Amino acid sequence: PTKRHVDHNASCEEVYICPAGDKRYIVLREVCDGLDSCGNEREVCRKSHQAPVVYVKAQSSSRTKIMTTSVLLNTTIESCNIDLGKVLCHCLKGLTSIQKQVGLCSREEFRFPEHEIYGMNTATTVYLPDATLNCDNTFGETYLYLSCMGRCSTSACPLTRTLQHDSCPGQYSGRVYTLANNAYLTFLTKSYYQDETFYQNNYFLCRNKNCVDYTKVCNLVDDCGDASDEEMCTNSFKCTSSQDYIPITGKCDGAIDCLDLSDECNERCDKSIISGIFLKAVSWTIGFLAVVMNLIIMARIHGLSRTADPLLLCLTKL
Questions:
Q1: Spacing of C-alpha 99 from chain mean position
Q2: Is the distance from CB of 251 to CB of 269 less than 8 angstroms?
Q3: What are the DSSP calls for 120-144, one per residue?
Q4: With a cut of 50, which residues of the chain have pLDDT below it?
Q5: Could you read off the pLDDT of 295-314 as tens digits, one per residue?
Q6: pTM value > 0.70
Q7: Nearest in space to 191 (alpha carbons), one of 109, 125, 120
Q8: Residues 6+ apart with CB under 8 A from 92
């Protein structure tokens, strides 16, 4: 434990402890701020930026079979629905003390689109914080569920296109076509759980009609091929030249993650790179002036006349 003094009623922030022999520490919000305040801080930040760890899959709870009974034409019909549980953030069982500190959790059902799809017998139950969060540090399924269920303070839901019967060409060979909302034709895919068969359609539809799993949405990788799975995500920054994605936390943090420096040289970072014809003109002008100044200095060193043109005399001597 670290000993520190805090103001009255102030909370103790998480800290980064300096290497052995150094009794100092710095709060986490000051780590990787461009200042080497703690011995090996800069080296730690450099290594951590090389391979960002991205968790794209939400914690799954056990599937539950729910028996439902309905009456159709005086006939009782019993069916089995499969409940697919997803647990986000700190809403795991046993973390009640953390929930008391950062907020309680709620249990809600997720379905996109919210249409009646004939034959669909699955429901995704999501256990998520009962508060709005900053979703810039979440990826994949977690980001998708939080944003689409209204838990992100600044992030919009990336699900904007509904699956049609001709979506995802060449994918999901075991698809089953069905009617959705009595308005359009869509499809479901078949899976098995224990002795039951269940149908679901939890897929992200790319702009080019390809489809990817929810785990591949907003995960810093262009899985669609047209970048539509990353374009509405607030958790990433797109490098200008390479078109690679880095976590948004890597923007303006003092460490270069994009080969073209675009993550550090932009308007938000108050730094910019001059490019194009203007840059070339400035570079040639600076280079020419440097050559002229060097020639003038050489002429004076050799004791040439101060009244003559230094550049002409030096060129004549050469």
A1: 24
A2: yes
A3: --EEEEEEEESS-B-GGG--HHHHH
A4: 1, 66-79, 312-315
A5: 888 887 776 555 555 554 44
A6: no
A7: 120
A8: 59
pLDDT of residue 76: 45
Q: How far apart are CA 104 and CA 111, in angstroms?
A: 22
For residue 257, what pLDDT is reported? 86
Tens of pLDDT, residue by residue over 88-137, are: 887 877 777 776 766 788 999 998 988 999 988 888 899 999 889 899 88
What pLDDT is stored for residue 11 in this prediction? Answer: 64
Query: Tokens in use for 114?
Result: 């919210």
Close Cβ partners of 151 (under 8 Å, ≥ 6 residues apart): 128, 129, 131, 132, 133, 135, 145
Please give the single-letter amino acid code of residue 291.
V
Rg (CA), the chain: 30
What does the alpha-carbon distance between residue 218 and residue 138 come to, in Å, rounded to a whole number? Answer: 9
* Closest to 59 in 3D by CA, of 121, 138, 150, 134: 138
- Give the side-chain half-sphere CA count within 13 A for 241: 10
Question: Of 194, 195, 197, 193, whose CA–CA distance to 174 is shortest?
Answer: 197
Q: Determine the Cα–Cα distance for residues 36 and 38; give it in Å rounded to an integer.
A: 6
